[in-house]
Protein backbone atom coordinates (compact mmCIF):
# COMPACT_ATOMS: atom_id res chain seq x y z
CA UNK A 1 0.00 0.00 0.00
CA UNK A 2 1.25 3.55 -0.69
CA UNK A 3 1.85 5.71 2.36
CA UNK A 4 1.09 9.39 2.73
CA UNK A 5 1.60 12.09 5.35
CA UNK A 6 -1.01 14.85 5.50
CA UNK A 7 -0.65 17.84 7.81
CA UNK A 8 -3.65 19.82 8.97
CA UNK A 9 -5.78 16.72 8.52
CA UNK A 10 -8.39 17.08 11.26
CA UNK A 11 -10.86 19.07 9.18
CA UNK A 12 -11.40 20.85 5.88
CA UNK A 13 -9.30 19.93 2.88
CA UNK A 14 -6.86 17.78 4.86
CA UNK A 15 -9.59 15.52 6.23
CA UNK A 16 -11.42 15.32 2.90
CA UNK A 17 -8.23 14.37 1.09
CA UNK A 18 -7.37 11.79 3.75
CA UNK A 19 -10.77 10.12 3.43
CA UNK A 20 -10.48 10.03 -0.37
CA UNK A 21 -6.98 8.57 -0.32
CA UNK A 22 -7.96 5.95 2.25
CA UNK A 23 -10.80 4.99 -0.06
CA UNK A 24 -8.17 4.32 -2.72
CA UNK A 25 -6.14 2.11 -0.40
CA UNK A 26 -3.59 4.55 1.02
CA UNK A 27 -2.12 4.10 4.49
CA UNK A 28 -1.86 7.48 6.16
CA UNK A 29 -0.13 9.47 8.88
CA UNK A 30 -2.29 12.41 9.90
CA UNK A 31 -1.31 15.54 11.77
CA UNK A 32 -3.21 18.39 13.42
CA UNK A 33 -2.88 20.49 16.54
CA UNK A 34 -6.29 19.59 17.97
CA UNK A 35 -6.12 16.07 19.41
CA UNK A 36 -9.88 15.58 19.71
CA UNK A 37 -10.72 16.66 16.17
CA UNK A 38 -7.82 14.62 14.83
CA UNK A 39 -9.05 11.48 16.61
CA UNK A 40 -12.48 11.94 15.07
CA UNK A 41 -11.01 12.44 11.61
CA UNK A 42 -8.73 9.42 11.95
CA UNK A 43 -11.67 7.24 13.03
CA UNK A 44 -13.62 8.28 9.94
CA UNK A 45 -10.63 7.66 7.67
CA UNK A 46 -9.98 4.25 9.25
CA UNK A 47 -13.48 3.11 8.25
CA UNK A 48 -12.05 2.61 4.75
CA UNK A 49 -9.98 -0.29 6.09
CA UNK A 50 -6.48 1.16 5.69
CA UNK A 51 -3.93 1.82 8.39
CA UNK A 52 -4.15 5.28 9.93
CA UNK A 53 -1.79 6.85 12.46
CA UNK A 54 -2.94 10.11 14.06
CA UNK A 55 -0.26 12.23 15.73
CA UNK A 56 -1.46 15.49 17.26
CA UNK A 57 1.15 18.21 17.47
CA UNK A 58 2.54 21.40 15.99
CA UNK A 59 4.41 21.11 12.69
CA UNK A 60 6.74 23.89 13.80
CA UNK A 61 8.19 21.45 16.35
CA UNK A 62 11.11 19.47 14.88
CA UNK A 63 10.45 16.54 17.20
CA UNK A 64 6.87 16.30 15.98
CA UNK A 65 7.98 16.37 12.36
CA UNK A 66 10.44 13.56 13.06
CA UNK A 67 7.67 11.56 14.72
CA UNK A 68 5.44 11.94 11.65
CA UNK A 69 8.14 10.60 9.36
CA UNK A 70 9.04 7.81 11.78
CA UNK A 71 5.39 6.72 11.84
CA UNK A 72 5.30 6.67 8.04
CA UNK A 73 8.52 4.65 7.97
CA UNK A 74 6.84 2.06 10.18
CA UNK A 75 4.00 1.84 7.65
CA UNK A 76 6.45 1.27 4.82
CA UNK A 77 7.88 4.63 3.75
CA UNK A 78 6.72 7.96 2.35
CA UNK A 79 5.19 8.06 -1.12
CA UNK A 80 3.29 11.31 -0.61
CA UNK A 81 3.77 14.35 1.61
CA UNK A 82 1.00 16.95 1.70
CA UNK A 83 1.82 20.25 3.39
CA UNK A 84 -1.67 21.46 4.18
CA UNK A 85 -1.33 22.89 7.72
CA UNK A 86 -1.67 26.67 7.56
CA UNK A 87 -1.68 29.76 9.77
CA UNK A 88 -3.31 33.04 8.75
CA UNK A 89 -1.14 35.45 10.73
CA UNK A 90 -4.20 37.32 12.03
CA UNK A 91 -7.80 36.28 12.64
CA UNK A 92 -9.67 37.97 11.08
CA UNK A 93 -7.26 39.15 8.44
CA UNK A 94 -6.14 42.79 8.59
CA UNK A 95 -4.42 45.26 6.29
CA UNK A 96 -0.63 45.22 6.24
CA UNK A 97 -0.53 48.46 8.23
CA UNK A 98 -2.13 46.62 11.18
CA UNK A 99 -0.63 43.15 10.69
CA UNK A 100 1.16 42.06 13.90
CA UNK A 101 4.70 41.04 13.05
CA UNK A 102 4.36 38.16 15.49
CA UNK A 103 1.45 36.95 13.39
CA UNK A 104 3.44 37.24 10.19
CA UNK A 105 6.28 35.28 11.78
CA UNK A 106 3.80 32.57 12.81
CA UNK A 107 2.39 32.33 9.28
CA UNK A 108 5.88 32.03 7.83
CA UNK A 109 6.92 29.49 10.45
CA UNK A 110 3.91 27.22 9.87
CA UNK A 111 3.35 27.71 6.16
CA UNK A 112 6.96 27.83 4.99
CA UNK A 113 9.63 26.86 7.51
CA UNK A 114 7.79 23.87 8.96
CA UNK A 115 6.78 22.67 5.50
CA UNK A 116 10.40 22.70 4.36
CA UNK A 117 11.51 21.06 7.60
CA UNK A 118 9.08 18.19 7.03
CA UNK A 119 10.27 17.76 3.44
CA UNK A 120 13.87 17.63 4.66
CA UNK A 121 12.94 15.01 7.26
CA UNK A 122 11.04 12.87 4.73
CA UNK A 123 13.35 13.36 1.75
CA UNK A 124 15.32 10.09 2.04
CA UNK A 125 12.06 8.11 2.06
CA UNK A 126 10.55 10.19 -0.74
CA UNK A 127 13.64 9.58 -2.87
CA UNK A 128 13.41 5.84 -2.16
CA UNK A 129 9.79 5.70 -3.33
CA UNK A 130 9.03 4.82 -6.93
CA UNK A 131 6.43 7.60 -6.92
CA UNK A 132 7.73 10.13 -4.38
CA UNK A 133 5.44 13.15 -4.40
CA UNK A 134 5.23 16.43 -2.51
CA UNK A 135 2.09 18.56 -2.59
CA UNK A 136 2.30 22.09 -1.24
CA UNK A 137 -1.19 23.47 -0.73
CA UNK A 138 -0.90 27.01 -2.02
CA UNK A 139 -3.39 29.80 -2.57
CA UNK A 140 -4.51 32.25 -5.21
CA UNK A 141 -3.44 34.86 -2.66
CA UNK A 142 0.12 33.78 -3.45
CA UNK A 143 -0.25 35.18 -6.96
CA UNK A 144 -2.92 37.88 -6.65
CA UNK A 145 -3.03 41.03 -4.50
CA UNK A 146 -6.10 40.85 -2.29
CA UNK A 147 -6.68 43.43 0.41
CA UNK A 148 -5.95 42.03 3.91
CA UNK A 149 -4.45 38.82 2.49
CA UNK A 150 -0.89 40.22 2.33
CA UNK A 151 0.77 38.30 5.13
CA UNK A 152 -0.90 34.98 4.39
CA UNK A 153 -0.40 35.45 0.67
CA UNK A 154 3.28 36.24 1.14
CA UNK A 155 3.75 33.03 3.12
CA UNK A 156 1.98 30.97 0.48
CA UNK A 157 4.03 32.64 -2.27
CA UNK A 158 7.16 31.61 -0.40
CA UNK A 159 5.85 28.06 -0.04
CA UNK A 160 5.08 27.84 -3.75
CA UNK A 161 8.54 29.13 -4.64
CA UNK A 162 10.13 26.51 -2.37
CA UNK A 163 8.07 23.87 -4.18
CA UNK A 164 9.26 25.16 -7.56
CA UNK A 165 12.91 25.06 -6.52
CA UNK A 166 12.51 21.64 -4.88
CA UNK A 167 11.19 20.32 -8.19
CA UNK A 168 14.36 21.52 -9.93
CA UNK A 169 16.66 20.16 -7.26
CA UNK A 170 14.84 16.81 -6.94
CA UNK A 171 13.92 15.81 -10.51
CA UNK A 172 13.14 12.26 -9.38
CA UNK A 173 10.14 13.55 -7.40
CA UNK A 174 6.85 15.06 -8.44
CA UNK A 175 6.41 18.40 -6.65
CA UNK A 176 3.12 20.20 -7.13
CA UNK A 177 1.98 23.51 -5.68
CA UNK A 178 -1.80 23.28 -5.76
CA UNK A 179 -4.16 26.23 -5.41
CA UNK A 180 -7.39 24.73 -4.04
CA UNK A 181 -9.45 27.84 -4.76
CA UNK A 182 -11.92 29.36 -2.33
CA UNK A 183 -13.27 26.77 0.07
CA UNK A 184 -15.85 26.76 2.83
CA UNK A 185 -13.48 25.94 5.69
CA UNK A 186 -12.94 27.09 9.27
CA UNK A 187 -9.73 28.78 8.12
CA UNK A 188 -11.58 30.87 5.55
CA UNK A 189 -14.32 31.70 8.03
CA UNK A 190 -11.71 32.88 10.53
CA UNK A 191 -9.98 34.94 7.85
CA UNK A 192 -13.08 36.79 6.65
CA UNK A 193 -15.94 36.12 9.09
CA UNK A 194 -18.16 38.71 7.39
CA UNK A 195 -18.25 36.79 4.10
CA UNK A 196 -21.38 34.73 3.56
CA UNK A 197 -20.20 32.79 0.49
CA UNK A 198 -16.92 31.08 1.36
CA UNK A 199 -16.51 28.81 -1.65
CA UNK A 200 -16.62 25.15 -2.54
CA UNK A 201 -16.85 22.28 -0.10
CA UNK A 202 -13.41 20.71 0.40
CA UNK A 203 -14.68 17.36 -0.84
CA UNK A 204 -15.56 19.00 -4.17
CA UNK A 205 -11.94 20.14 -4.60
CA UNK A 206 -10.33 16.80 -3.75
CA UNK A 207 -10.89 15.23 -7.20
CA UNK A 208 -8.39 17.73 -8.57
CA UNK A 209 -5.73 16.39 -6.23
CA UNK A 210 -6.64 12.79 -7.09
CA UNK A 211 -6.33 13.59 -10.78
CA UNK A 212 -2.77 14.79 -10.23
CA UNK A 213 -1.90 11.59 -8.39
CA UNK A 214 -3.49 9.45 -11.09
CA UNK A 215 -2.02 11.23 -14.10
CA UNK A 216 1.29 12.39 -12.53
CA UNK A 217 1.91 15.42 -14.74
CA UNK A 218 5.16 17.36 -14.59
CA UNK A 219 6.06 19.20 -11.42
CA UNK A 220 4.58 22.68 -11.33
CA UNK A 221 1.73 24.85 -10.13
CA UNK A 222 -1.85 23.67 -10.63
CA UNK A 223 -5.31 24.96 -9.75
CA UNK A 224 -7.59 22.30 -8.30
CA UNK A 225 -10.83 23.81 -9.65
CA UNK A 226 -9.44 23.70 -13.19
CA UNK A 227 -8.37 20.10 -12.71
CA UNK A 228 -11.83 19.18 -11.46
CA UNK A 229 -13.31 20.86 -14.52
CA UNK A 230 -11.11 18.76 -16.78
CA UNK A 231 -8.78 21.56 -17.86
TrEMBL record:
This is SDR family oxidoreductase. It comes from Streptomyces misionensis. One of its GO terms (cellular component) is membrane. Belongs to the short-chain dehydrogenases/reductases (SDR) family. One of its GO terms (molecular function) is oxidoreductase activity. Keywords: Oxidoreductase. InterPro entries: NAD(P)-bd_dom_sf (IPR036291), Sc_DH/Rdtase_CS (IPR020904), SDR_fam (IPR002347). It comes from the Bacteria.
